[in-house]
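ingest -> validate -> predict -> emit
validate: passed (alphabet ok, no gaps, 345 aa)
predict: started
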Amino acid sequence: MGRIKFTPTGPSYYGRGTAQSLSELGDGQDASTQENTPGPGGTDAEPADPGSGYLWTEDFDRYTADSPLSLTYNNPACGTTYPDAQATYGTRTIPNTGNACQLQQPVSFITGRGGSGIAIRSTLPTGYTGSNLISPYPTYTLGDYDNSGRTIVMQLWFRLSVGGSIGSGGTKWFEAWYSGYNQSRMQTGMYPSSGFTFSDANTDTGSINRTPQPLDPFVCGSHPGKTVLDDGLWHRFTFLYRMNTSSTFQNVSGTNSAQQDLTYTGTSSRDGRLAVWLDGNLVADFQQSKVGVTPAGGTGVWCLQCDVDSIMPRGWVRYFKYPDVINNVDVGFTLDHDDFKVWVP
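emit:
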């Protein structure tokens, strides 16, 4: 939505503050409007929204057609003559499609975050395995931002239906796709059982499921005593991505650094960082100063040395997917997105 009623002044800790609980909030409210105890500052603070100068922003409010399919095709054979999406909207977000007349998943326009404007909803039935929004499209229009040794921040708002869960097989929750190396990606995977993790999906890193988030909140799943965001409210996801300036990392064997069964050769400049905040709370952080460190109240360490060394220098970030594949939805749910922004801090 274009009319955002909330300006963040710092991180907030849900379930740890003085405000009313999330269960007391009405459907459709922004959880971020509630007063909570401030989170940590310094390098653990969520990157501040600059308010302007974005590499890319998408609030969905400019779309007026009767179906998200109109963002992709103008094909009278589909039964409805949609506008020429490129001529009407130019650079845009598109829902991926199985063919010219079929979306990969049921997608609809809904009322945007805060009760005005437009957001986009994916309705995912039990057993479903696909979901895919591509932004920006055409996929070269981010401007070939050279991320080597520099930082890029991606932020979007999401809402799960009450009790909604991605499914036991997990999902590729958010992906930053780049050129310059096999046209592949850095992804934040997410599992109901363990939360967020990272994977640089290429042969030299082995597409490893790396050390999962040690702190709540979690997006979904059963986490007794922890805050879980499957509450039908809007929540903020922020992802910071800084590649190492150099790395000779090569995976030799193993599939899971969290279980410490990974063998690799090489090292890196160790100046890269991958981090995720949920509603201002740092929940996952791969950087050299966090190697082997368990945060207070955490379920494990922030990261291992292999996690940092595997942040490869890739080249140019070009576009994003949110999410990508969902591996077997156990119980049907809806997933909404709004207010996507990309910037350089």
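The radius of gyration is 19 Å.
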